[in-house]
Amino acid sequence: MKRFTLSTLAGAMLAAISSASMASSHREAPFITENPKVDATDFYLFRSYEPNREDYVTLIANYNPLQDAYGGPNYFSLSPEALYEIHVDNNGDAVEDVSFQFKFTKALGNAGAGISLDINGKDMAVPLKNIGPVTSTDDSALNFKESYSLTMVDGDRRTGNKTPVLNDSDGSTSFAKPLDNIGDKTFSQQSYDQYANSFIYDVNLSSCPEGAQDGRVFVGQRKESFAVNLGEIFDLVNTNPVGPVDGESNQLADKNITTFALEVPIACLGEDNDVIAAWTSASLPQVRVLDPNPSFTQPLVSGGAWTQVSRLGMPLVNEVVIGLPDKNRFNASEPKDDAQFADYVTNPTLPTLLQVLFGVKAPTVENRPDLVAAFLTGFTGVNANGSVAEMQRLNTAIAPTIKAEQNNLGVAAGDNAGFPNGRRPGDDTVDAALRVSMGLLCHLPLDLCTPEQAESGTLAYTDGVLQNAAQFDDSFPYLTTPISGATSDVSNN
């Protein structure tokens, strides 16, 4: 196979693509729909493009899909029973070399006693999560608080060397999570931006090499970062897949998400190899028993080994590649064992479904080496790291592109810092997945397959929804302010 540089691949892809991206993982498997708090929806991996932060890598994992901003009274907390993790492979064996583990706790307000009111001489607990405005310096009206610990693991996620990540401000191992954006009245004394930004922490990564031990972390609600014509796509592609690229509304535009954002020095993730690979996962205890007399802190009893229930690396794999009988198993698997799913990549069903529905021609490529490169190996000379596994790969030697100059087609448009060299929030990945599935790579000089084997491979498949860098911030954590659950009604103030 020929070796292609990023610039060579970019030129070839730009000639064939007019726009790109179908990536996300909302409710992608039957079992995970029963556990939305541990459902990973999107994963991003990119060199930080915030000014003066180019020596860092940002890893963002989103969980808890399809949050309606008005979803009170309990809103969208995370699970204290779960272990949320981000994994990095830095030597190409599809096994984690570094993991970051997030573990959550919850507590009632008023120092854990809960806020109560004197009602007719009786001390009565209030039913709400807050009873007045909340600010970054005054949370006395807050009746529910979440915090988390962050642990860095070198080696195997369960048996490797574990080091607590420290809060730079006070040396503690605890970090607070902001209250969801309940509404403008709750945050009437301080904008939600100001409030949430106070939960961005500088951290000390003491197990990283000297000079590469500083980082940042944020966990909290953000505006949904993914854009897709969701309902129509899964209604037998009830839209025109070769219609206008930006012709449809984003059906996730009114949703929020819970974001885990972590910024780490490049040197901390692997000094010896430019290409790293990463993915996110969530696990629950193997045994869970419902408590017949549940309390606020203990609605169930759990124990046993951590059992993985969610996994996400490259976008859209479980949605449109893995068959329905194996979706739960894929979520429970690790990249090193992905040979068991290889037939789904080498014999994909989506192209045939599009052929039946729209009369386009599915590729006739045997064993689909083009999809193997896209989903399992990366591209030789670009971001391949020697492994054959479903992970997101990033060549950290490629300089980041500032927000104003990013192209949502990434490498396809000559923006080598974008998808599929990692993934940034503004990279449009839905159209790209559709086009690659239909054989786009067969029309590029990659020696993977021939144009004749993908007759419809150059059509501009699209879900019709725009995604670009302008929709996001140019500083950590990049994803934007969550939608307010309610606007202020001044007549009631």
TrEMBL record:
Source species, domain of life: Bacteria
Key words, A-Z: Signal
Pfam families recorded: DUF4331 (PF14224)
Leader peptide range in chain numbering: 1-23
Protein name: DUF4331 domain-containing protein
Native organism: uncultured Thiotrichaceae bacterium
